[in-house]
Structure formats: C-alpha cells, structure tokens
Amino acid sequence: MTNNWFHRLILSYLPVFISMAALLLLLVYFIGSDLSRKSAIRANEVFTGHAAQTLDNQLQTVEQAVLRKIFSENTIEQYLKVEIKPLDPVPYEVSVSLAELKDSFPLIDSIYVVRDLDSSYVSNTTIGKSGELSDSAFVEAIRKDKNPYLWTGVREFQSFAGNRKVAVISLVKAVPFFSGGYVVVNVDVEAVQNFLKNMSSSSFNYMRVLDRDKQVITATEPGVGEGSFKETLTKKVSSYTGWEIQSGVKYLGLLHSISNFTLICIGIAAMTFVAGIIWIVYVSRRNYRPVLQILAKINSISSMPWRNGPQQGDEFAQIESAIEQMAEDTTKFTTKYEQMQEESMAIRRQAGLKELLEGIRPVDAEEWKRRLEALQMPLTFKPTAVIVVEIDAFTGFRFGYSTQDQALFKYALRMIVAEIADHHRAVQWIEWIAPNRLGMMLEVKKKAEEGLSQLYSLCEEARLWTVQHLPFTITMGIGKATGEITDIPQSYESALRALACKASLGTNRVIESNEAQSDFQQNVFRHIQAIQPLAIAYKRGDESWKAAVADFFVELRKVLLTREDLIGVMNYMIYYFHKEMKSLSGSLDDKWELESMPQLTAMLEWIETLDETEICLLRILNEYATHAVEQREQSNHYALLGQIRGYIEEHYANPELSLIYIGDKFDMNPNYLSRLFKSEHGENFVDYLIDLRMDHAKRLLSETSKSVQEIATSVGYTTSIAFIRMFKKTYGYTPGDFRKKASFR
C-alpha cells in the first residue's frame, strides 16, 4: 500500500509551515522569557515578604515572652526593687525562670537581667556582679545610650571565660519602672540562619539580612556579602527591627542571554531550520498517523470485505468499506441488545412475582401497581388466584436430560400454559419461581364460582397437553381466590398446601385448595405406634413384616397427608429400624450400615407420593432381608434356632418359660443358648420373650373384652401386678390406658 495521502500532506503544508513556525517560535521565545522573568520577580517578592513577616513574628514572640515573664512573675520585680541579702533565694528563682524562658525558644542563646541598684546580674546559668559578667562592656554601652535599639546588630558573646564566642543579636529591654535595670536576650545568629534556610529550600534563591548600618547579620549561604550575587530582585525593611531583608535569584544567565543579539540571531536561524525538519518529519507523520491507525485497526479484522478486492492502496476506499461493515455490525448488535433487554425484563418479572407471592416485604396496592406498570403487567387483582405447577419426579427429569433439553421443555410448558390462559381470556403472570415450579397469577373476569371452575378447566387442559406432548407429567395446586393484593401470599400458601397433598392424592392431577385439608396430625400417634412392632419383626427375620408394611401404607392412604408429613413418618421409621438393626453383629450390621441405611436416607430426597415410597422402601428392605436369610442359613445353628423360636412362639404363655427351661428342653447350656440367641437375632432371649408377650397382650386388649388379670395369665404372667408393671415399662402407659385409646380410635 502506497502512502498517497501522506505525500499530499507534505507537499501542501511545507511552505506555510516553515515561515509561520519560525515566526511563531521566535515570538513565543521572547514572550516566554519576559513572562518567566516577571513571574520570578513576583514570586520572589511574595517569598521575601513572607520571610520578613515570619522572622519579625519570631522575634516579637521572644520579646512578648520576656515581657510576660517580667510582669507575670514577681520574682524579677522583687529582684529589681529591693536589696538582696546573702543567701536570699530570689536571684536563684530568677535564674531558674530565665532558664525556663530560654528552653522555650530555640532561637535564644542566653538571657540575663542587670540591676542598676548594686550592679549585680542574674543569667540563666550564673549569678554575680556586672563587673564579673563577660558581656560587661555591652552592658556599659547600653547604660550610656539612653535610647538603645530594640534589637542590636551582630556582635560576639562569650558566656564564660574560655568558652567559644558566639555571634548573637540582642534584645535590650530597659526596666525603669522598678528600681532600674535591663533585660538582655541574646539570639543565636546561626539559629536564625538555619531558620531562614528552612524557609528558603530552593537552590535558585538566596536571602540575606542587614542591620540598620547595612552590615550583614546572616545569610542563607555562608560567607555571603553585598556583591556575592549578580542581582538583588527584592528588598524589604522591617518596621519592627529596622533590618533590611534582601533576596534574589542565584543564577540568571538564561535571562541575561536574551540581550545578546548575535546569540539570538544564531538561535533563531537554528530553530527555524530545526523547526522545518521537525515539521516535515513530525507534523506530517502526526497528521497521517490517525489514518494509519484506522487502517491498521481495519486490517486486523479478517472479515472486512475489501481484503480480497481491487482497491489495494486507496486508504479512503478501505475506510469507506469498513464504515459500511461497521454499520452492518451495529445493526446486529442493536438486535442482540434488544434481546438482552427482553431477557432482563424476564428476570425482573420473575423476581417481582416471587417477591409478591412470598410476601418478602409488605407493600401497598399503589406501589405494586406502579411496579407492575414498569414490568408491563396488566393485573388488577379482581379476583385473582395463585396456581403452582410442579414437575413430577423432578430428580429423574434433572438427571435424565441435558441442561439445554430441560430449558427447552420448561420453555414449552410455560408457553403452552400462557397460551391456554389467554384462550380462556384470563390475564396471566406466569414465571418459573423454582427449578421445578411454575408460579401463575390468573385474573378471571367472572363471578367467583365460575372463575374457579374456569381455572380448574384451564389447569386440566394444560395437564392433558403435557401428558400428550412432553416426557413428564405435572401436578397443579390451585390457591384460594382473592381480590386484595395483600392476600396474594395467603393464596400462594394455600396453593402450596394443595400441591403438597399430592403425596396422598398422587401426581399428574389438579388439586384445589379445598381438597388440601390434611387430618394426618390427628392420627399421627396411631401410625407411629405401628412402626415399632414392624421393625422388631423385620429384625427377627419374621416374614410377617411384609404384610405389616403393606398394612401400614394402607392405613396411611386412609388419611390425607402432605409430603412434609410423609417425610416425617419415614424419618421416624428409618430411625426405629436403625435403632433395632444396630444391635445385630457381623456382616448383617455391616450390610445395614454401609448399604441399606444410606439408601433409605437418600430415598427421602426424591420421594413424592405414598406409592413411590412404598415401592422404594420394600425394594431396600427386601434386598437386605434376602441377604440376612442367606447369612443365617449359612449358620450351623440356623435350623436349631428356628425350632427354638417356634417353640417360644407356641409356648409363650407358659409362666415357667426361661433360658434354663429351653436349655433343658433342647439339651443346651443356658449361657451358650443366650449368647447364640443374641448373636443370631440381635436381642436377648428375655427381651424377645417380653416383646412377644406384650404384642399378644396388646392384641387381646384391643380385640377382646377380657380382664387385665385374664390377659396377664394368657400371656404368661402369674399376677396382674407383674403384667401391668412390665406393660407400662415397655410402652409408657398401663393396659387400661391402652384399651381406652384403642376403643377411642
């Protein structure tokens, strides 16, 4: 591809660019230099004023602190007023006070008070006569000067003989309103210099302080004098100290070079030449770069139509073709975006229906009407019934089909239900509220009774269509009709209760809320009571357990129970079976713990009806019972124990029946017989005999009118007292109470 557009740019802009760029760059250079200089001067003025003000504030603070010390503490006043006697503590107190003042201000090097009364002095470190003071010459000078300066210039101060001399500036305060004297505060010049350095951290600026005699007090650079710098930009005179603060820029070579005409001409010529080269190489490339970037982006897309076309090298023809392709892609994206919006609306509708049905948070009718308008739902709740559709045997459906197939079937179910509702002229809100449940709110524009009949016909039509066209069946629960939005959760609960009753009523049907009147809880004791003897018979290997299981489910079918009730009963049955079976030993116990018990527990996760439960339970129990029979038949004592059990069941009414009696009868040691019986049947001989006698006693109590004494004798007890005691120990109530309960049922 040739760069045609790039060549055009170079040939069209080159002459104008060279002339205009040279002129503009020259003007910018001069204007920029001038602005830089003015800006530097203004900044320097602000900096110098701030530095002068800050330094004055520091010195004024020292002065004010001295005055507060003089006037607020009577020790200095007392020292200056009265004559001091030997061992008087006042001078020492003044020295301590001055030391505290010095410690409060880092700038202070030393401080002392001179008393004219007896020419004595007190400093922050010593006490003595002014003649002994190393600074006595300065004291004499300020006594002769009736109007001493507030702040002196730089002078040398030596606190003690032998100490090094320190450059200080001194604050002198005359105290004429007492007995007379002076307070002298020496400020370390080096500390002031460090203070100024901290303020002026730039390497391009300098600062120096001059006293009233134009002598340098301090500067930010050591050894700086009047002529050490090229130019002073700013001068400020302190109204407080009378000192002059000067500041400027250390290096101004760039600013001064502007006045050199020769250098300017050379610079202009060089910059003009360089600008022309830069313009040719850079500006043209920069203007052409967007075209290159667009072409590179276009060429990176392999699906563009020009790649095999004849327009190779024409940049704008390629760009035009790309724009057409992008317009087509935009149309596709818009279509996809609209689809996503529809999916988002579906998700919002699903969440809205679930929130309304479950009553997650209370809302008034007006708020829900606004939300329904936003969701484009036309419901008015006059009257409305909630219907819940549940896929039967959902566990098998979930594992039997792929995720894609499940979604397809569920979509078909939802659409056909919506179509049938529309055919019946019912305004509907239909959404999946759980993986296996479709929630519906149907508004029927008829009278209540006719409306409910119409709902039943609608549901029955949907159920029949599902049976004919889909690989699964559905059960539908119809909730109570309501005309108030606040009653929708109650209608939903009644629909769920109706749906739960399919455990008794069966699957693949329509259940109305008035059918879901479960009476199971009123008869729960009678059903649970039948589980214990069933488990005992199963543990013993008695074939009667099969008939007992069949009778148990026959009794369950006589009452209406929900799936929750069914799960509760089965949990109790599994618990009691496990309680009985865990007393077995050897391979029988292993088989039960490792295979049968996990299967029974897993069964509770998917069973839905009594029929399914009975079939699954019998399959698991039969499998274990077959294994138990095989194991027992392999035992050497299986036949003998069978004879012993038959004898016990035939002669259980004999009061003398015991291990010793049976041992004598079958010529066996009683202890060995006990261990053998326990090993094969999982319970002691005595417990087995008691359970057998109590089972017969319960039958006689419920089926005959014999007295308790007669029944006690019939089951092997010589006295009714022993029988009653054992009956209550076994069941928790007396024979009389049991007979009353049996007659009541």
TrEMBL record:
For this protein, the record's SMART domains field holds: HTH_ARAC
Return the InterPro entries for the record: CdaR_GGDEF, Homeodomain-like_sf, HTH_AraC, HTH_AraC-typ_CS, Tscrpt_reg_AraC-type_HTH
Q: Which residues form the HTH araC/xylS-type domain?
A: 642-741
Read off the Pfam families from this record: GGDEF_2 (PF17853), HTH_18 (PF12833)
Q: Which keywords does this chain's UniProt record carry?
A: DNA-binding, Membrane, Transcription, Transcription regulation, Transmembrane, Transmembrane helix
Per the UniProt record, which residue ranges are transmembrane?
A: 12-32, 261-282
What protein name does the entry list?
AraC-like DNA-binding protein
Q: Which organism is it from?
A: Paenibacillus eucommiae
